[in-house]
Amino acid sequence: MLELISEVRRNRELIWALALKELRVRYKRSALGFIWALLNPLLMMVILATVFSVVMQMPVKQYAVFLLATLLPWTFFAQSLSYAVESIVGNGDLLKKIYIGKAVFPVAAVLSNVINFLLSMIPLVVILVVLRFPFHWTWIYLPVPFLALVLFTLGCGFFCAAAHVFFRDVSHIVQNVLNAWFYASPVIYSLDFVPPKYHIFFRFNPMLYILNGFRLAIYNGQLPTLQSVAMSLGCGIGALIAGYLLFRRHQNTFVFYV
Amino acid sequence: MRQVSIRFENVVQRFRVIRERPDTLREAFTRVLRYKSQIFDFEALKGVSFSVSDGETVGIVGRNGSGKSTTLKIIAGVYQPTSGVVKVSGHVAALIELGAGFHADLTGRENIVMNGLILGMSRREIQAREEGIVEFAELGDFIDSPVKQYSTGMYMRLGFAIAAEVDPDILLVDEILAVGDAGFQQKCMARIEDFRERGKTIVYVSHSMATVKQLCTRALLIHEGVLLADGPPDEIYDKYNELLHQPVGAT
């Protein structure tokens, strides 16, 4: 783990440049440029909020805020993972020619989405103001679930990036797993809507604890229980260690398979 | 006694060549079911030992597929050898594939920063050298255009200009002087000469014996993964000529 930290430190300028490049390339030649980073979550929210509050009549007050509080972190997770899974294979040509620390690529993929996520906080604030939704003091707690989210995403990212080198099915599998995972996680609903007898299944989902932290702080104005905090951070750290160890074990052979 | 900057001890590099690679899980499963060996091992280097002292300029010659570039990539750290010991002391820069890591949509200037960082320079170093790179690459106004609009020559020139600004202890050069026109080739040669005069170690791979004779004080002849000869370029030149006149495959 110390190895990872020192590799990231050593290459911090490169990682930063790669992450910015990712964003720049994504928005280059589009008339609105970076505004898309703000617009995308807004449009997504408008669609989902309309469907669930108007059509499905979810029994939730201010459903837009309820939804956005978990949708934004979820989008960060899903998008980071889709980037990270391709990060080694996508840079294969480079790896075959020049020696570079391999961990740089998944980290940069996640970092570019961190920037995107932070930008998407702006439309969230705008919506809260427009809807006259109160800013709870619990906002100051947000860095904690965010940290857990980033660690968990990095861990999954390392795992998928490494696995994808050896089996190119992984990127397709990831997309489908993410789809299923989205509905299996309390993003568009909350655990209260689920019959208690099924709760046991949800407890195995690390995203439950992480998303819960976001929603409680933004929507409910409450802090999660200590147990929930511990679970989310524990899952984050555990995923990172497991993912990185797998990645590190195979990183020297990536060059032969990309 | 000068310090050793590169040492190879019995280095073997084996590549797993897969006739039909299991790119997908399905193929991996069917492989298990049918149990057919579709993998064969190819030894690009079959136990190579040599060492290069600090400040030497060594040429590596050999025919296509002899293992020259593999040797260079091992020195650069791209490949981890299958077995054997490799010791490299000092910062290595490789003029192996110029422009590797250029992003087509970014401008020349943006790519200078990206590529410089990839090659291990810091942002500050790059900024200090940016003007020199732009000038050396002779790109003029194109420097602020996306590199996808560059001609092959321009692309290579920019690649060389960046790589030449990395100030390594060991410089690896792989047949890149074939790029650009005569004028640019001379400039590249001058850069490499300049390196040599400053007492840096250079490993130069080529199948052209002429440039090796011109540049190097020593040459290694590699053939089919085996180090055949190690000595002054003139001697190696004769041996290499003999080899060239043998039919492919006969050893």
Secondary-structure blueprint:
The complex is a heterodimer of chains A (258) and B (251).
Chain A: H1 2-10, H2 12-27, H3 35-55, H4 63-90, H5 92-97, H6 104-130, H7 143-166, H8 170-184, H9 199-202, H10 206-220, H11 226-250, H12 254-257
Chain B: E1 4-18, H1 25-34, E2 39-53, E3 57-61, H2 68-76, E4 83-88, E5 92-95, H3 108-118, H4 123-137, H5 152-165, E6 170-174, H6 182-197, E7 201-206, H7 209-215, E8 218-223, E9 226-231, H8 233-244
Parallel strand pairs in B: 3-7, 3-8, 5-6, 6-7
Antiparallel strand pairs in B: 1-2, 1-4, 8-9
Summary keywords:
heterodimer, A: 258 residues, mainly alpha, 12 helices, 75% helix, 0% strand, B: 251 residues, alpha/beta, 8 helices
What does this structure look like?
The complex is a heterodimer of chains A (258) and B (251). Chain A is an all-alpha fold. Chain A has 12 helices and no strands. Chain A has helices spanning 2-10, 12-27, 35-55, 63-90, 92-97, 104-130, 143-166, 170-184, 199-202, 206-220, 226-250, 254-257. In chain A, helix 3 (35-55) packs across helix 4 (63-90), helix 4 packs parallel to helix 7 and helix 4 runs antiparallel to helix 8. The longest helix of chain A has 28 residues, at 63-90. Chain B is globular, with a radius of gyration of 20 Å. The relative contact order of chain B is 0.18. In chain B, helix 3 (108-118) crosses helix 4 (123-137) and helix 3 packs across helix 5. Chain B starts with a strand and ends in a 7-residue tail after the last helix. Chain B has 8 helices and 9 strands. At the A-B interface, helix 2 and helix 5 of A face helix 1 and helix 3 of B.
